[in-house]
Fold Four helix bundle protein.
Amino acid sequence: MPVHSYKDLIVWQKSVELAVMIYDLVERFPKEEIYGLVSQMKRSAVSIPSNIAEGRYRATRNDYAHFLRISFSSGAELETQIEIAKRLPKTKHLPYEKIDALLEEIMKMLNTMTGRIGSKN
C-alpha cells in the first residue's frame, strides 16, 4: 500500500497511540509533578509523531531522516523519563508494561526507517 501521507505510516499511528497512553498514564501522577515529569513526558511523547509528520513533508530525504532522528531522540527522552517515574515512590506502582513495549517497537521502527532513508542518499 503506497504512503500518501504521514498518517499512512504505521510508526506515526503507533506513536500517536503512545502519546495518548502517556497522557492517560500521567493523569495518575501526583499533582506536584504537573510542571515537572508530567510536562516533560507529554512533550516528549507528542514530539515523536509530530516530528515524523514534519519530516515526511520536508523537501529532501536528508531532511526526512533528520526529523526521524529527532523523533528517535524524543523517544530516548521518554524512555528516560519513564525510567525515572518507575523509581519514584508515588509512581513506581503504575502499569508501564504496554507503554514500554509500544515505545520499544516505535524506537525499532524509527531506527530502521532512519537507516533506510539515510542509506539511499
Q: What stands out?
A: The chain has one domain: 6-119. The radius of gyration is 15 Å. The chain is about 70% helix and 0% strand.
